[in-house]
Structures are given as C-alpha cells and as structure tokens.
C-alpha cells in the first residue's frame, strides 16, 4: 500500500516535486558528462597504444606516460630480435614541432609529430591508419592529421604547410586522434626524421614489438626485462603501458582531481536542493500526513512513504538524465569532441542519482515530526 500511495502523491503534487527531480537529474548528468569528457580526453593520449597491434612497448626506464618518454638508443632493436618469440620490431618517433599555415594568416600551432613504419603489415597505429593512408605517407613530406584539427591548422586535405620550416602536405585525415594542448601529426619515419628536432638520428622514442602467435605477452615481457637488466630501457605490455598512461593523467596531472572535486560539488548541491524541495513538499502536505497518523499509520510507515517517493524521484531523474545525456553525447560526437561512456560510468551515474535521492530524503524526514494529529483540531 505504501509504494502506490507514494506514487499517487507524487503524481498529484508533481509541481511540488518537479524541482527535486530536476536537481537529481542534473546532478547525475553533470557527473556523467564530466567523467565522459575526462575519460575521452585520456583515451586520446593512450590511443597510440590501444590503436596499435603491438604486444610490447620498449622505452626509457621509468616513463609514466607515452607523451613524456625520452629517446633510447637504436641498438636496443638488435637485443629485442634475439628473443625467439619476437616476430617484428617497429620504431616509433615522437617529437614536437611548430606548424605554419600556407597563407601565413595564422600564428604558429604546436604539433606532436609521430613517425611510424609505413611498410605493409605494420602494427603501429594499425587501427587508426588505413593501408592506403600508410602507402600515401611513403611520399616524402606527406602527413596525416585528425579531421577535427583541419580548421585549427587552416588547411584541407591536399593543402601544404610548414613544420619546422620544412614544407609538408596533408594527404589524409584520421578520426579520434585529437591531442591535449596540440595537434597530432602522423608521418613516415623518414619524413619525421627530416622534421624532428632531435640532434642524434640514432635515437628512438619507442620500439613496438609484435610476437609470434601463441606466445604470452606478459611472459615474454618478464623474460626480456630480466635479460635487459642494466640496459637503458624498460619493457611493458601494451595494456600495462596504456593503463600507466591513463593513470598518470588521471591522478598525477591534477585533471582527475579537478573532475572529482567538481563531481563532489555537484553531488552536494544536488543533495541540498533536493532535500530542501522534499522538505517543502512534506511541509506543504503536513496535514495529510497528520491525517494518516490519525488513521493509525505509524511514523515508520510515513518514513517509508518518503523514502519511496525519493526512489520514484530517482527513477524519474535517471530517465531525464539519460535523455539529456544521450543528446549531449550525440552533440559531442557530432562536433568530434572526445567523449567515452562505458558500463562503469553508467553505473557510477546511477549510484550518484540514488545517493542524491536517498541522502535528500533522510534530511527531509525531519519534517515528519510535525505530522501530529493534533494539527487537525486547529
């Protein structure tokens, strides 16, 4: 009887409870959008790893994130080939540069220049660069940029520009490879060597190792790392390196803490607004609650009615947050804004909505102290 009564009360006095439902919905929506943007941004950093098919990554010891690695000596390639499980070793060059638009009507744009192996079957960025694009990169001075960055660079496919004072031509675009604080530019190893700022051409940012089928990446990583003791490089499996990169940006860069603080504020504001709205709704219906007390309904049952109302409000808030969130995420994808939503994020949003609703109802329960049948005699 209590749950239907709570539902009928909400429907009858929906105008009183609407602000609470909106506060709950927007609290969940804010958390959903903030975290989706954060995870989307961080996934673009690790995309160089996740979009490659290599099993192992080799870089400077102690590297915390792919974009802060220091060069290692090219001689490490010979060492890696000695292991019988290694099928292929590819170089990946990583350096910065300065872009100048062809018309000269824009200032310099910082770019992150990545040199990849363009041979057929190469695993570096195999999921982001098509074989046809890889073949076009074989032409000296050819580059790829993300489609979302064409406007920032002031070019279209086929146009030319300058990186480090050298002429380059955009021969294609990638999708989903926007950078944080710059523009990702992909070129062949040969083109990157002419555009990069490294003085020693024997240095390599990373080696990406592909294993023969049937070999376990973690086992080979441990064996190679043991054999490499004392050598100036470190070896990681691809999933470990991707996780290390995301973890660094999440916790060490300060961005994750900022989002956590913003989510906590959204949660607190939602609880305050919702609790005040529920308290006002209960106060406005205090005579009805007093009537229920006079009919023999216990205070405990009245509390359960309020809790049931909070759960119904949470359900309505979830539906509204889902509708608004779907619209915002669609708009973000349409504008090529990096966002990412998975099952864990959806569950986190549900948890936030339920927390706001239940915490608010607990604060609002204090109003039931005034539901005294004596009120009916006044």
What does this structure look like?
With 378 residues, the chain is of the alpha+beta class. The protein has two domains: 2-44 and 254-377, no CATH class; 47-252, no CATH class. The chain contains twelve helices and eleven strands. The strands form two sheets. A six-stranded mixed beta barrel has the order 3-4-8-5-7-6. A two-stranded antiparallel ribbon has the order 2-9.
Question: What labels describe this entry?
Answer:
single chain, 378 residues, alpha+beta, six-stranded mixed β-barrel, two-stranded antiparallel ribbon, 12 helices, 11 strands, elongated, transmembrane helix, ABC-4/HrtB_transporter, membrane
